[in-house]
């Protein structure tokens, strides 16, 4: 059901369903792209936005449902078929070849040829220059892409799309790495593309961008189509409510635990920048965590959150200067092995990249960090691996058909529970969690919040890093804000307000005005 | 019953095993000389050299690496063992002569293999060289050292104890086969039952996750390349003993047969997946193929072409069918 009275439906997707092993990523979702308009897709992580866009742009070809482009039924078997038909996606991670020039990137795979069948460089550069002019982009077509800033590289991607006569342009969070000024340039460009009749799909998490750009908003939640409506007259609050779709009442409620003795004390922690010697990624970090305490660390992207936890865990030991006391004793951590011996455990941010060996079974992943416990006469004892794994399956309600199931076949939430099991098996006294609920569904999230609470109750000292304010406010006893590698604020639980914490976490030199802070808060 | 069959058919070793049986069957049918006990032991003796190298190569490839230097390491360790056996070690400065017993030579060869392998490992872990580059360098270095040590001439006439290792029999089975069986059984057990074995799989599956799990990745890699060197030295001893001479160009190209055996046996070149058992089957396939083509009087040029297609075919088949089952 397209929004009424819009004559120009360019692309119509009906009843799109996509199943991944163990997860229904999309369940009968409808979606429309209108000529000369921006349809923004919003939804929480894991709502299915990227999956839907990957289907429209031909990345996934095995789905149920139908897509009509300009009235004709289409099925794209791959990305290049979609591009040929004029549906082009600009991914968050840019797909440019760094050592090639702007013009070469724009015409990659479709280089104009001269009569002899060789590449016609003159024509290529000329056509590229015309495109760049249309985008008001001041760079020579012969500049290598690696010499451009990220915002400029984004424009090259857009030029590439335009050079294919794209009629549907899909942008996945295009401003996430752009400066304020570059964002303005991009928005002007999007407006001029609209007047050219291009249909634009815009994925974003930033609510203020909706107000500036969107003509329509489509909301997804947990793979379900929630609503599509005109942006005009829609309040941000209404959007957020339909995105979240839950009463704040059934949100997790933390129990209060009596704080114990100090478990971890970090003094003057510095981390040198690998690529810029002499510069510091983390500057003079000091904090303490006690038994039964949950310390939240909040910061924006690039604040140094992950680096802080990895540094504590001995990953960057060669570039680290710090005095670290555990249970009052001075310790030197040179390798994650030392950290584990000291009773630390780190649940990494990216479980697929850093947390799991995807090709190994669930039980082998769970035993990996504590294999010494699974020895019998010096040899591995598979029976013990199975009994311990079964215990975690029960306790954390991990859904899998067997202990032998490969970690890569589990859904995100269950994978995260396997990572947690692996680290609980090392019997840590200090637990470091980096974005523990990224990309997992709400019920699994609540399971993890409850587990954190329970572990704190048992006397564990816990550090949680998160970029989601409601999450960190819900689970923490105390919050530190991190910004550009320094700690910029400290809040006790009774001082928690979204506004104050976010303000403390924002870069001081930034030109972000108070009103945009307000908007950021209202989106959270 | 059905489930058992399903479980059995999902074993990655099944396909190469069927291929091996088909080949044996076809050869028996095509050539009257194939299925004789003489020829059987002949094939086994040839396979045992490749098998020793392939077991080491399996460990290396499971970590996601590669060892191109095995053939040259084989040559140098074989040559040193032969040289010490025949001429001993004469030090000119203190005018000292050290004679070597058989076991002394064996130890010296294994030590050479370990040192060269450890050098590979050090380049890879400490200096972060890609394994391909580090071991390519060693391929040339060790070959050059072999030429220097032998002056480019074979060292021959090594005595009875040495030739027993190469051509002798024990309990009705040739000595080289015994040694290969020992190597295979030990490492199959090692990979399945020890912590380090598990770590080798984990590192190949996800190096960063392994590091964060407290695994000393550098130490494990160093060990793996050292073991590959030692096993190449074992193969070097077998080759030298069988010919009763150390050839300066021994083992050249052996790395290719070893990699082929590992890959045909179903081990993933990107690491983390595979088994010693698969490699045994892979090495047997190559052995039967080499032997059968000779028996069938196929020209050596065609032999190479056919072998190449078998390697490619095995991997294509594996990729195609595993994609389908996903």
Q: Tell me the overall shape of chain A.
A: globular
Number of helices of chain A: 18
How far is the first residue's CA from the last residue's CA of chain A? Answer: 29 Å
The proportion of residues forming helix of chain A, as a percent range, comes to: 25-40%
Q: What is the H-and-E element order of chain B?
A: HHHHEEHHEHEEHHHHEHHH
Say what the CATH topology of chain B is: ABC transporter involved in vitamin B12 uptake, BtuC
Structural class of chain A: alpha/beta
* Regions with little confidence, pLDDT below 50 for 5+ residues of chain A: 509-518
Shape of chain B: globular
CATH fold label of the largest domain in chain A:
Rossmann fold
Helix content of chain B: over 70%
Q: How would you name the CATH homologous superfamily of the largest domain in chain A?
A: P-loop containing nucleotide triphosphate hydrolases
Largest interface, per-chain counts? Answer: A-B, 27 and 22 residues
Describe the protein's topology:
The complex is a heterodimer of chains A (524) and B (326).
Chain A: E1 9-20, E2 23-34, E3 38-42, H1 49-56, E4 64-69, E5 72-74, H2 79-84, E6 87-90, H3 102-106, H4 121-134, H5 150-163, E7 168-172, H6 180-195, E8 199-203, H7 207-213, E9 216-221, E10 224-230, H8 236-244, E11 262-272, E12 280-290, E13 294-299, H9 305-312, E14 320-326, E15 329-331, H10 336-341, E16 344-347, H11 351-355, H12 362-367, E17 375-376, E18 379-380, H13 382-395, H14 412-424, E19 430-434, H15 442-457, E20 461-466, H16 469-475, E21 478-483, E22 486-492, H17 498-505, H18 514-523
Parallel strand pairs in A: 3-8, 3-9, 6-7, 7-8, 13-20, 13-21, 16-19, 19-20
Antiparallel strand pairs in A: 1-2, 1-4, 4-5, 9-10, 11-12, 11-14, 14-15, 17-18, 21-22
Chain B: H1 2-9, H2 14-30, H3 37-62, H4 70-87, E1 89-91, E2 96-98, H5 102-125, H6 131-150, E3 155-156, H7 160-167, E4 169-170, E5 173-174, H8 175-193, H9 195-205, H10 207-212, H11 217-243, E6 245-246, H12 254-264, H13 276-295, H14 300-325
Antiparallel strand pairs in B: 1-2, 3-6, 4-5
